[in-house]
Amino acid sequence: MLTPELLFALRNLPLAARRAAEGFLAGAHASRRQGAGMEFSQYRPYQPGDDLRRLDWRLAARSDKYFLRESEVDTSLTVNLVLDASASLGHLDDNNLSKLDYARLLLAALAYLAQKQGDAVGLTLLLPTGLRQLPARADTRQLPRLYHALETVAATGTFPDAATLAPLTARRQRALTVCVSDLYEEQGEISRLLARLRATSGEVLLLHLMAGNELNFSYKGSVTFRDLETGQTLQLDADQQRAAYQRQLQAWLRDTAQAARRQGLDYYLLDTSQPLDGALREFLKRRQLMS
Question: Which stretches make up the DUF58 domain (predicted)?
């Protein structure tokens, strides 16, 4: 698997997305159902209420029996990608890759996969100044729009307030919503949004970003930490605090995963120092279950 830093080093988001996703496409089979598509599958006897336009009149003329032509069609979904672009995503891992850099690669690869599956895919960037939305489309020009939006977004400010987020959950729509966030929140604002998304779209895959140096606390000696959203600083001895930090982190991660699953969310923790394959596999799994 290509590492995130190697993909990012390509400095070409469309190419990086394709390279990250193409290994999965070989094993991703289109979901099939019986319907009124273009590829003929079989006949079945007419039943009251069936669409008469699908009757095979030539066969009826020959046999005096009424049959419908059934075909196999690819099922498609609406996939809504949602990115928390608040300032905490500017955090850098030891490989000098930020959470936002990783999120760009991940969402671009997911968009590529979705389009290859025939899905309508859209993107919403959660910004403190408002939502930047690209409504879901299945046309060939959608990927360049998404790539441009991801390439130009910056990690800034705090998570948007409820009034700003309201249009995101204003109407119900059956869709697979993929939300990428580091879940940095002050008063449960991200959790409330996820609950509303679950209620309005039906399926939410939550991809929780954590940098490798956050998970492993690889810092050494005296370190000054600065909160990217509040500006507050904290100085400590990393070696002395490592054990206590890791205990508290594991407890928080466990509680976070349990709370998400109680809400009916599909939760998946991502280490931004690792390849994208785990997240892509989770996406394909959820998509196949919905098809």
Answer: 42-249
Superfamily, domain 4-29+77-290? von Willebrand factor, type A domain (3.40.50.410)
- 178 has which bridge partners? 81, 205
**Phi-psi category of residue 157: left, alpha or beta, with phi > 0 → left and psi -120 to 50 → alpha:** left
Domain extent listing, the chain? 4-29+77-290, 32-74
Q: Where are the alpha helices (DSSP H) in 64-187?
A: 99-116, 142-152, 162-165
Q: Which two tokens stand for residue 182?
A: 């580091």
pTM, two decimal places? 0.83
Given phi > 0 = left and psi -120 to 50 = alpha, else beta, which region is 226?
beta
Amino acid occupying residue 176? L
Residue 125 token pair? 């960037």
- Give ∠ CA 141-117-200 in degrees, rounded to 5: 85
